[in-house]
Specification:
The structure is a single chain. This protein is an alpha/beta fold. The protein folds into two domains: about 90 residues, no CATH class; about 260 residues, TIM Barrel (Alpha-Beta Barrel), CATH 3.20.20.20. It contains ten helices and twelve strands. The strands form two sheets. The chain has an eight-stranded parallel sheet. A four-stranded antiparallel sheet has the order 1-2-4-3.
Length: about 375
Amino acid sequence: MLEPWELPGAAMPHHAFPLGEGCWRAPAAKSASCKSALREFGVESLGSLADGSASYAIHGLKDLLPPLPEGDVLDPAYRALWIASRLGAARTAMARPTKAPKFMAILNLTPDSFSDGGTFSGGTMGPLYHAQCLLAEQADILDLGAESTRPGAQRVSANEQLQRIMPVLESLLPLQTPLSIDTRSADVAARCLHAGASMINDVSGLSDPDMAPLLAENGCETVLMHMRGTPATMQKQTQYLHLRGEVFDELMAMVQNALAAGMAPEQIILDPGIGFAKDAFQSQELIAKFGCFRALGFPLLAGPSRKSFMTHLLPGAPPHQRDGGTAGAAALCAAQGAEYVRMHRGGKSVDAMKVAAACAKPKPAEVPCPST
């Protein structure tokens, strides 16, 4: 079975993923003959969805579908095979075991972050001490950011980002902990990778045309996040016909751009972008159904930490007092297969996500003891 991103037409909508209660989303059949052919594969069309896709029930979908060559997706027979293949690839990806979640610790070096702006900006002693505290709280990766991406934030030049990041990065190298750089700038990424960073966290999903070729050449792990617009404009772009479906398809289009630029699938980690071009209830939906994004076939990162979707859930709690709420969201995402969880603080929050992830894993069936 091909991976979801390897199927012909992988750049086209509508990719397959579980909707819940036994239903799956995939491209619409568009004709009675296509629906009839799908039934031969064990797939039953249930109806249309708002974004032009359709819902399906799977009744014994064949694990070994015929090879899927390039073809005309409007031809009913080929379209049926194409839809069944997408469902089969998604189901295989969903069944793949996930790894224990890692805590990516946020180390903001900005004066205007929504949560801790200015607390650790300027000099290296403050960030170094904070990094050591995060390591004591079970951090696996330190994610350094010198440009706020809070709603309404304006872009920060590459030079200014580097002035903030480079001294801190160099001070952290002796800790021998993987360092991630949260940046949309290929210039910043290049300098930091050369200096010893090992991961890039790009909230813009490769908007800088020089970013993908750089990452392809370097081969480093890369987080690609879903966002519409920019941090300055994203909260005006929260209109979706089908939230998870559109996020899903836009993430896959991003993956296709990355692969076309020479990036390897093994480099890619995907982030659905909680709070980025999503309102509070949309962010809650992404968390509640986070596991469906495993159908993309890539490791997932969840970033719920202290975000504004908690404002109406925790009335009166400013961002720095939302770590308990963050622990709940992180545990939900980890239980659904998030392999990286990005948070401001660890400790008990990391304990919560680790326990949730372990409890959610399927356990071997109990075998009755033979009677004696």
